[in-house]
């Protein structure tokens, strides 16, 4: 599903975030990206979602060369990817429900169907009772769960999560990891970046370890 | 298709809601656009009224030739023969003094005056249309006729009509210049409000991009905002014109009544209003389009 061939990402200014990385992730896998902050985990996820383009090498997602993708085609790639951010990137000018509806509106779902799907997604993350609340009134863990609901509401086949449990306490973190496990069991491919080695080892999934932009398998 | 319609409906509703949320900012922008539009549109209305007024005047340049009061039929025949002999005339016709008086007494306001007359004070006259209407040619013909027997006066009275036509032409050019300048101002006003909007909604744009929004989807609400704002501005301009014409018409009709005329100021016609609104909407769209594209590129490159 995802394939990196000798991928290097150098940012303007010369910082090399990723050096000559090659690996493959099969459809239906759940893979952890580990490494301390600044090791290149976020860059790697951004390359998959075409938020950044590689300096060298090729990134292939669903047999499409993402690095060379036309600008106009990128939105359609992203609609098939659920993105989960450490800082949630929620919109505080609208309700919880409206936040979850956004991807469906963008993809052009009919209103009735969109509402049904959004409720289902909120129910899955345990936020259905808060659908009318403003996300600013939610706790950190709830905000992260809302971000997950928004990422999975359009039922993408690939979910990328950047430090999803980064600033949550252990109980919340375990909840969220269990949720990911459940998604994976219904066939969703997950790539989760985390610096929390303990949480990673508890799940026994495949781990891609990064150090200073280099891959250590 | 349904998706497309739904997106447009969504964008329109969201636009109106957003305008409602900041009523004062919206109102000021709309008034600025309206005033900017009302200036060229007002000048256009003024010119149209003057043109309408001028339409009663001889459009073709003419020369009026008046005979002496004591001229007889023989004199008239001589003049007719001489006029027929000239090759530089497009045409001419004779106005007998009796006919001229009858025409004059029919005109409102003068009939009382003519009724008291015992004698006809008007001379026999000729109306001559030269083949070439330039001022030099007119003057040459007028000078030649002036030397003929029993001619009292030759009046090259079309000159001022030509001047008026030239002035109206100048006015029309002025409308274009003014319209272009203020049109550019409208694009700037629209672009600026949109730019501010984009700044306040930057987060939404970034998030939408990350979850698969196309450029078109992101642009749409802003373009709607520009169009709706321009449209409202056009309505304000129209309102300004309607009120101005109403206010000025009272004085204009009073003035016209003094000249025994039933002249009334007219505002914009239905088609002209439609054109005004269409231009306002199009310029609003253009401003929004320019601002959106620029701002989106800035957000992208960050």
Q: Could you characterize the architecture of this molecule?
A:
The complex is a heterodimer of chains A (217) and B (302). In chain A, strands 6-7-8-3-9-10 form a 6-stranded mixed sheet, with helices on both faces. A 4-stranded antiparallel sheet of chain A has the order 2-1-4-5, with helices on one face. With 217 residues, chain A is α/β, with parallel strands linked by helices. Chain A folds into 2 domains: 1-80 and 157-217, Rossmann fold (3-Layer(aba) Sandwich), CATH 3.40.50; 83-155, no CATH class. Helix content of chain A is 35%, strand content 25%. Chain B is an alpha+beta fold and 302 residues long. Chain B folds into 2 domains: 2-56 and 162-301, no CATH class; 63-157, Alpha-Beta Plaits (2-Layer Sandwich), CATH 3.30.70.3040. Chain B has 10 helices and 4 strands. In chain B, strands 2-3-1-4 form a 4-stranded antiparallel sheet. In chain B, 26% of the residues are buried. The chains are: A alpha/beta (217), B alpha+beta (302).
């Amino acid at each position: 599903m995802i394939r990196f061939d000798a991928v290097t990402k150098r940012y303007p200014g010369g910082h090399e975030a990723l050096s000559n990385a090659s690996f493959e992730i099969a459809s239906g896998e759940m893979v952890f990206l580990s490494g301390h902050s600044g090791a290149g985990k976020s860059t790697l996820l951004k390359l998959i979602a075409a938020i950044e383009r590689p300096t060298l090498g090729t990134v292939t997602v669903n047999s499409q060369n993402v690095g060379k993708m036309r600008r106009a085609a990128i939105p359609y790639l992203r609609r098939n990817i659920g993105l989960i951010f450490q800082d949630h990137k929620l919109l505080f000018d609208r309700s919880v429900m409206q936040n979850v509806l956004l991807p469906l509106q963008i993809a052009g779902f009919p209103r009735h169907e969109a509402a049904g799907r959004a409720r289902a997604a909120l129910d899955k993350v345990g936020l259905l009772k808060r659908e009318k609340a403003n996300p600013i009134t939610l706790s950190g863990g709830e905000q992260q769960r809302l971000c997950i609901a928004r990422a999975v509401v359009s039922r993408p086949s690939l979910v990328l999560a950047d430090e999803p449990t980064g600033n949550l306490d252990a109980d919340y973190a375990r909840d969220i990891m269990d949720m990911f496990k459940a998604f994976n069991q219904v066939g969703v491919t997950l790539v989760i970046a985390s610096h929390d080695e303990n949480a990673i080892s508890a799940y026994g999934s495949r781990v891609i370890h990064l150090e200073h932009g280099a891959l250590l398998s | 298709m349904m998706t497309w319609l739904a997106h447009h409906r969504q964008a329109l509703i969201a636009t109106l809601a957003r305008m409602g949320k900041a009523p004062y900012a919206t109102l000021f922008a709309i008034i600025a656009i309206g005033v900017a539009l009302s200036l060229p549109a007002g000048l256009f209305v003024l010119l149209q009224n003057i043109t309408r007024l001028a339409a009663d005047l001889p459009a073709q340049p003419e020369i009026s030739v008046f005979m002496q009061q004591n001229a007889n039929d023989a004199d008239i025949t001589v003049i007719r023969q001489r006029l027929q002999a000239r090759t530089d005339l497009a045409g001419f016709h004779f106005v007998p003094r009796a006919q001229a008086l009858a025409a004059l007494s029919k005109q409102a306001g003068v009939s009382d005056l003519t009724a008291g007359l015992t004698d006809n004070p008007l001379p026999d006259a000729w109306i001559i249309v030269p083949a070439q209407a330039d001022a030099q040619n007119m003057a040459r013909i007028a000078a030649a006729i002036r030397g003929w027997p029993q001619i009292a006066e030759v009046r090259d009275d079309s000159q001022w009509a030509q001047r008026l036509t030239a002035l109206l032409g100048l006015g029309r050019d002025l409308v274009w210049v003014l319209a272009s300048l203020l049109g550019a101002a409208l694009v700037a006003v629209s672009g600026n409000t949109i730019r501010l909007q984009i700044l306040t909604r930057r987060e939404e744009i970034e998030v939408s991009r990350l979850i698969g929004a196309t450029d078109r989807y992101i642009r749409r609400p802003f373009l709607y905002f520009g169009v709706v704002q321009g449209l409202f501005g056009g309505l304000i301009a129209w309102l300004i014109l309607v009120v101005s014409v109403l206010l000025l018409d009272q004085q204009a009709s009073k003035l016209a009544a003094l000249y025994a005329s039933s002249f009334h100021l007219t505002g914009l016609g239905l088609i002209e209003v439609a054109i005004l609104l269409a231009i306002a909407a199009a310029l609003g769209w253009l401003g929004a389009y320019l601002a959106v594209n620029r701002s989106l590129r800035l957000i992208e490159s960050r």
